[in-house]
Hints:
The protein is an alpha/beta fold. It has helices spanning 5-19, 31-45, 103-110, 132-147, 165-179, 205-209, 218-228, 265-277, 304-317; strands spanning 53-61, 67-75, 83-89, 116-120, 153-163, 190-194, 254-261, 282-291. The radius of gyration is 18 Å and the shape is globular.
Amino acid sequence: MPLDPDLEGFLELAQMGRLSGKSSALHELDLALARTQFETTSQVLDPCPPGAINVTTLSIPTRDGQSIAARLYRADASDTALLPTLLFFHGGGYVVGSLDSHDSICRRLAASGCQAVLAPAYRLAPQYPFPTAVHDALDAANWLAEQATALHLDNQRVTLAGDSVGATLATVLAITAVKQPQALHLKPRAQLLFYPVTDTSRQRDSHRRYAQDYLLETATLEWFYHHYSADPAQHLDWRVSPLLASGLGELAPAYVSLAEYDPLFDEGLEYARLLEASGTSVTLKVQQGLTHDFLRMGGIVADVEAIYTAVDRWLASL
């Protein structure tokens, strides 16, 4: 299917900016500027997310004596109800991204009032390389298991969720729940995976088909991976590359949503097939005409609203 016309227009403007020297790909920037540029795109992609959301700022302790910030999102009408919860991890290649850059996604996921969203701000590379993000994600999940009642959340109905490497963290927790159940103090009811990174050890055809000019670039992915796990051997660790996990049993039901024009498309499709082969219930959605990061595009792509509606329906069916 051709690119969504509104998205195509946005990408053309981005390409013109690069040709004129007014903008650069993330991997061409220094770290601080790359983070700032990524934050700025959120204001362009989705400037008016739902406003009637109660957002609470929280602090989650980590195993090394530090703490990470988090936000709890609830629709105003659901302030006191015991709600199912999405534990949502933001994308950004473990290097960029924040609670602010993904605020619009969390608001949209919470807007129906059918579930709350807890978003932890795991620590970023290269200051905090692998496995810090994995440890922070596990610590956040275990904190949620302990604190859920006080927050009016149901820790028996937790869905692990994320986009891009945030989805990778969600997959790692879902696998941990089966392979190392003693390490995770809750049993996820489902996993919600948007365009996940599943194998950093090699490139596939989609990395070459969509290497440039489709928002996320293959060179940027490699830049992310180098910052997160500079040791090549780490790329074979299933906590970095879940597609390489061996001996998988049945995991929590998975909703896998991929973008047609995404360097990560092929590995995402392979991961969905791996889950099916393990006996896991999989709902696979390919968003035709869209690129990586479509969840943040509510302000420029009309079809994004329907994507969130479909997610709400799937969660309600669990």
